[in-house]
Design a protein that fits this description.
By secondary structure, the chain is of the alpha+beta class. The radius of gyration is 17 Å and the shape is globular. The chain has a five-stranded antiparallel β-sheet with strand order 1-2-3-5-4, sandwiched between helices. 34% of the residues lie in helices and 16% in strands. The longest helix has 17 residues, at 181-197.
Length: 242
Amino acid sequence: MSFLGAQEIEEYLRDLSHGEISVTGRLVDASNATLYASCEVKERTLICIYKPIAGERPLWDFPDGTLANREYLTFLVSHWLGLHLVPPTVLRDGPYGTGMVQLWIDIDESVDLMEFFKEDHAELRKIALLDLITNNTDRKIGHLIPTSEGAVYGCDHGVTFHAEDKLRTVLWQWAKQPFSPAELELLQLARMLIATEKRDVVLGLIEEEELDATVDRIDRALTEKCFPEPNPDWPAVPWPPF
């Protein structure tokens, strides 16, 4: 799949929201119920991933039943910022209850992910910036989806927006590198959206404490004006990394 335009994204969101979901399989390596499904709407069938809240495994550090909200909010932040790094995603009812439904993206099988994730790649750097904003605690190599057209998407954003700093990622190649002017503008826009313009939407998905911590984290990044270094008090890389 190539880079999606705004109108195309809106069409996918509409169809994913209203189409009939049929589960056809399950991704067995996922820790939570991650179902391979089709979404039938009018003249087309969309392949998608459906993660029902009922299938979320309890975690010691995240409230139960909130991972789908966090996946959806990560999509929204990426979408609001015009980054388009997360496949079109909605929250909706499905065969096993309310959950996250996300458009399936075909990966470019010719890309060696074990080498790709280490590159100084512009799209990977954008994902690293998004992970900083969302406090992603699980950016694994296998959560990167390069496409044959040159787009790169990220998936599996259920453990994000925690009130404590928990950034854990394989994308550390820009640690301490200064933000570009465009990246600083994106951080300023993210702060405005989360703190004010989209505040009510955000508070419908995460707690106020988590929203405030997100704003504080963005403020810190704007003050330091560079990508963070790994936190010595927190595992810097998820395990397993793939």
